[in-house]
Automatic annotation (TrEMBL):
Domain Coenzyme Q-binding protein COQ10 START: 84-149, 187-248
A Pfam family: Polyketide_cyc
Top-rank taxon, per record: Eukaryota
Annotated family: Belongs to the COQ10 family.
Disordered: region residues: 158-179
The name this protein goes by in its record: Coenzyme Q-binding protein COQ10 START domain-containing protein
Amino acid sequence: MQAPRVLRLASRSIESFPLRPNTCRASQTLRTISTSQRPGIQPLSEGCKPSRRAFGLPSLSSFLPSSGNGNNSPHRVLTATRNLPYNPALLFKVIASVESYSQFLPFLTASTVTARDPETGYPTQAFLTVGYGPLSETFTSRVDCNVDKLTVEAKSGDKYGKEGQDKQTKGSSSSSGLAGFFPGGNEGLFEYLTTKWELVPLSPAEAQGGPLTKVNLEVRFEFRSQMHATIMSSVEGQMAGVMIEAFEKRIREVEGKGL
């Protein structure tokens, strides 16, 4: 019987060592070994060759808003209309109560009136906090309550800053000393945001014997960053409709309490 051959740790003895199964290492030492066929030695298969993982930045398109209407303009205009069986005076009273907005309007988590008209008592400025998901920002709004036109409009953003400062220099007064002042710069989620409520009393024929008022809501805005636009894109199309529904519910509550 032939005696077993003793392997010596010579410079080429590593060729006699069988490779471990499922081993995919490709060290510099193994690259120098001959891949000629020998008993117990198998060349590296294609599956064991080292692969290079590609790293890259995500596409910018993944950060763009994907609203269903396909509107890529940074300027957004949302509208909603509802005919409500109430007197316009009652509706105007609720809309002009800006301090109560956070109690019934979605996306508004806080509303504080900081200035009022000394003659009418209607708000002229307010701090409004918008919150949705991870976003929560407080910004300044200039409020215009026009009882003759039955409109209530709240504005915030850089584009209204000069107008607000001009009004301050013309002597608008309030107990807080802030009436008409509208900083707007570097605030909040928006480059600008306007919310306008308009009431249109309908004729007796249209009302069919009872009070009936058309409520028009228009929301105009532009997000300050593309990230904010992406986060809000899933709800922006529903915003105006949800707001006017919440307003209708608030009217029923106010009427029921006799406020």
